[in-house]
Amino acid sequence: MSRLQLAIHKQVWVPPFGAIVLIFATQAVQEAKQGKSLDASSMLKVAAEAIVGVAGACALTVGTARLLGGSPSVLRALAVSFASLWMTFSPASFFPPAGALCALFVERVVAKGPLPGFEYALFPCSIGVALLLISTRVLASVLARLVGKSQAKQHRWGGRFQELPTSTERME
């Protein structure tokens, strides 16, 4: 458990975030190549799609779990179906990892663990997705600037580095 998680008494990390980071990192690198990694309109568009997809699918899953209880096979099938339907009827919110977040909630129901309510759709899911988007964009921006400075130094030195002589060449 992280210190942040202990301080706020909420789950901060869920396994599907690993896939979400990879999706956002790929987008952030493309945006950084164009010098737009911190472009507010681009970030808002991506955030809206991802957050609406995650929040809608997870809220439907939580509602279904409350109605059906812990019937594993039916609940799993309906959670995946609802996540898919949510993203189908709201194409602007197509975000595949939402299904994984729904499946994770279903596994909690099946395991008879302590269940969060509808706040699960908000935290860790929606807020976590937003924080991951912001952090990957900031990191991509910082790294793009560092790489740009490194390339500028390399260009000032003639675009190439000279190799050091080997030990046998030094002896000659």
List the helices and strands and how they pair.
Elements: H1 3-8, H2 17-33, H3 40-68, H4 72-89, H5 97-110, H6 119-156, H7 167-171
The whole-number mean of residue pLDDT values reads 81
Task: Report the sheet with the most strands, covering strand number, pairing sense and barrel closure.
Answer: none
User: Per DSSP, what share of the residues sits in E-state strands of 2 or more residues?
Assistant: under 5%
Structural class: mainly alpha
pLDDT < 50 stretches: none
Total number of β-strand segments? 0
Figure out the total of helices.
7
Folded structure, characterized:
The chain has 172 residues and is mainly alpha-helical. Helix content is 74%, strand content 0%. It has seven helices and no strands. It has helices at residues 3-8, 17-33, 40-68, 72-89, 97-110, 119-156, 167-171. Helix 2 (17-33) runs parallel beside helix 6, helix 3 (40-68) packs antiparallel against helix 4 (72-89) and helix 4 runs antiparallel to helix 5. The termini are far apart.
